[in-house]
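Changelog-linked ticket: zinc ion example.
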Amino acid sequence: MRIVAVSTSSLWVAFFLFLLTPPTVAAQSGEARGDGPTAIHAGMLFDGTDGEMARDVTILIRDGRIEAVGTDVEVPGDAERIDLSEWTVLPGLIDMHTHITGDPADLGADRGAFLFRYPEQPTLVGVRNAQVTLMAGFTTVRDLGAPGTTALALRDGIASGLVHGPRMVTAISMGTTGSHCDRTTGIRPGTADVDERRPYVFDGPQEAEATVRRAVRDGADMIKVCATAGVLSLTEDIGPAQMTSEELEAVVSSAAMLNRRVAAHAHGLEGIQNAVRAGITSIDHGSVLDDEVMREMTERGTWLVPTMMAYEAVVEMAEEGFLPPGPAQKALEIRPYVVESHRRAFAAGVPVAFGTDAGVFEHGRNAEEFQLMVDAGLSPREALLAATRNAAEALGMSEELGTVEAGRWADLVAVRGNPLDDVSVLEDVGFVMKEGVVYKRDGRPAR
Ligand SMILES: [Zn+2]
């Protein structure tokens, strides 16, 4: 009798767990993906596969995915036709470094404002930012750190069609005690426990492994670590490493075991070296790079996510007197190294994926990064590939995103003019489709 009771209850547990199975990153079930087929006629198409531009191409879309692409695609009679013959069509853009629930207003000298807010507030801010980001042509973002579970909630809200926004690949960020990822650094003891991010602070490889497992349990699509200090935290020096090699290796190996990738926030050289050698997927920021580490990144296929917009933003805020004194000084100190490091990395052929750190500046300005990349030596073609094919590869989602090919999600944007002649045309995206649903048309929201 007892055995029967136990097995019945475990069946119920299994049933509820089945109900609780979370949506996958790419799934979007709540919003119709367009009932019938759709045919887009593109005047020009940058499909993201090889960096070439094609003319007069038809893209046939069904059930949210691309069914066929070419100059002689047969269009079914019942297909909805979208005429983009005066436009250049590209894969939906991907930003590999956002804080979509973040508001740049919070980076100023008054860091106490969060004490007066409910913990759900960043999700609401994120709803607005997600819409703005999607309208700017970014159909996928890798979100690298938010208070508590706010970004995870937003990710699921977008995936289920509750709110409009880019597909979110969402990290939980973690680091050692007193590091950039320990958000209590610089706040007096006793106040610290109000901070939601405290659970993901660790010391030593064993705790690092446990923290990765806990983050995955809590819903992380991936892991972000702070391998060095940050510009915007109050008191730490910008240069030194903040994790040992052993801790980084523990994070990377335990994440890999659970099929998760790891991004490293890293400014100083030692922290970058440790992270690259531990097998990290991407170095984000990458302020101080030497020839040796650039060679290692190229050999291993470690992605550099330059976030050049972030440096512009913090320097501007420092010069305007908006930042607290510590961060302001760090912003001005780091700047000369960054420009030089990125220029040399681009010239050396280090793999580059597009990322901005949106949230440090106003969301929706993400595409301004393209011009900064070109100013530092990338060709427009390379900059575009960084935000499409390369970014999808760095996410491990090449079969789903990043190119306009049969089988991929119908994530498409369109601009006037030719971005291979002038990348700044990407700052004015006039058409946005995500998974076959049109969100923007003729420069205006379609929904
Ligand atoms: Zn960031």
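Closing comment: Example verified and attached. The CA atoms of residues 120 and 150 lie 6 Å apart. Residues 97, 99, 144, 357 surround zinc ion (CB under 6 Å).
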